[in-house]
Amino acid sequence: MNSLNAAPVPASIDALVEALQSVGYFADRRLATAVFLALRLQRPLLLEGEPGVGKTALAQALSKVLARSLIRLQCYDGLEQREALYEWNYAAQLLHMRAAEGQGGADMAQVEREVYQDRYLIRRPLLQALQAPAPGAVLLIDEVDRADEPFEAFLLEYLGEYQVSIPEIGTVRATATPVTILTSNRTRDLHDAVKRRCLYHWLDYPERERELAIVRAQVPGASEALATQVAEFVGRLRSQPFANAFQRAPGIAESVEWAKALVALDTIVVDPEVVSDTAGILFKQREDVAALTRDMAVQLLQPADADA
C-alpha cells in the first residue's frame, strides 16, 4: 500500500475517536489517548485485559483508519524466532549450490555468499513489518503472554529500536516505522524490559453506553429495546455478585453474537427461557453454561432499580 493511499494520523484524540467509530470500533477517551500517543510518539502499545474486550479488534480497526496493511504475529507456547522473523529457503539454496558444483571450478566461498541473497529469504511477520514500504504497516503481536521468556528477550531490539539483527545479513532497520500493538490476556506477567519499551493500557469491559453503541453498530437488525436489553443483561452478568459464579465473563464479541442470535430467533423481549436456550453463545464452558440458571436469569432480567 503506497503513501498516496495512506490516511494521515488523526490530528487530535477526538478525531481519532471519530475515525475509529467510522470503522465500527468504539474507544473510550482513555484508550483513544493511549493510541493517539503511541501514534505520535511512534512507540509500541501494550494492551492488557480479559479475553474479548477488543484488544485484537483495535489493531484491525487502526489498519483501516490509517489505510495500512495489517500484519499479525499470533504468539503461542514454543514460538521460535524463525517463525516470527525470517528463515531461509533451504531447498532453493541447496539447488543453487548443486548447480554451482555441477559447473565445476566454482568458488565455494562465493557460492556460500550467494545463497544468502535476498531472494532466498522468507520473511515472517516482524521482518515484513520492518520492510513494509511507506507509510508502513500495523503489526499486531497477539497474545504475547503465550510465548515464552526467551521470545520476549528476542523482541526487545525490535520494540526499542524498530530493528532486528540477522547474522547472515546484518541489522535491518524499519523502512517506515510500523504501528505496533501487543496484546496480552495476562496468563503470565510480562518482563519489565518489554513493558518499559511500550506505552501501556489496561482495556476493561466497556461501560453500558459504549457496549450499547457497539451492539447497535454491529447488529443493525436489533431493535433499540433488544439492543438495550442485551447490553444491560451482559453488563450485569459481569458485575457482582453474579460474576463470581462464572469462570469467564462474556466478552464484547459474545454480546454481539448473542444479539445476532436473538435477532435470528425473532426475539422481541429476552426472557429466562431464551437466556437458557442461548447460553452457549454467551459462554464457552460447560460449567459456566450450567451456572446460568433460570433463577439467576430472572434476577439478571429485572430492571436495575429493582435491586435497590
Describe this structure in words.
With 308 residues, the protein is an alpha/beta fold. It folds into two domains: 3-76 and 132-202, P-loop containing nucleotide triphosphate hydrolases (Rossmann fold), CATH 3.40.50; 208-301. It contains 16 helices and nine strands. It has a five-stranded parallel β-sheet with strand order 2-5-8-1-9, with helices on both faces. A two-stranded antiparallel ribbon has the order 3-4. A hairpin with a 3-residue loop joins strand 6 and strand 7 (170-173). The longest helix is centred in the N-terminal third of the chain and has 14 residues, at 90-103. It is elongated and about 85 Å long. The termini are far apart.
Average per-residue pLDDT, rounded, comes to: 90
Superfamily at the CATH H level of the largest domain?
P-loop containing nucleotide triphosphate hydrolases
Number of strands: 9
| Global geometry | elongated
User: What is the H/E order?
Assistant: HHEHEHEHHEHEHEEEHEHHHHHHH
**CATH top-level class of the largest domain:** Alpha Beta
- Main sheet summary: 5 strands, parallel
| Rg value | 24 Å
Give the topology, please.
Layout: H1 13-22, H2 29-41, E1 45-48, H3 55-65, E2 70-74, H4 81-84, E3 86-88, H5 90-103, H6 108-114, E4 121-123, H7 125-131, E5 138-142, H8 149-161, E6 163-166, E7 170-173, E8 179-184, H9 192-196, E9 199-202, H10 208-218, H11 224-237, H12 252-264, H13 272-277, H14 279-282, H15 286-291, H16 294-301
Parallel strand pairs: 1-8, 1-9, 2-5, 5-8
Antiparallel strand pairs: 3-4, 6-7
